[in-house]
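Hi all, long-time lurker, first post. I run a small reading group and we've been trying to get comfortable going from sequence to structure in the token notation. Rather than ask abstract questions, I figured I'd post a concrete chain and ask someone more experienced to write out its structure so we can walk through it together at our next meeting. Sequence below, copied exactly:
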Amino acid sequence: MLVFNRKLRTNKIRDNNRISAANTSKFTRNVETGKFMSLLAE
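-- Answer (accepted) --
Happy to help. Here is the structure in token form:
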């Protein structure tokens, strides 16, 4: 049971890392798009 709980915890951590990585890439993409748009506006 203890091993199972530990495995569950590591899976949760891995999922959180994946989610934060996705959020980071989404954020960078938005920033890049913003830069591009401001370049177009000038």
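A couple of things your group might point at:
The mean pLDDT is 86.
The helical segments are 2-41.
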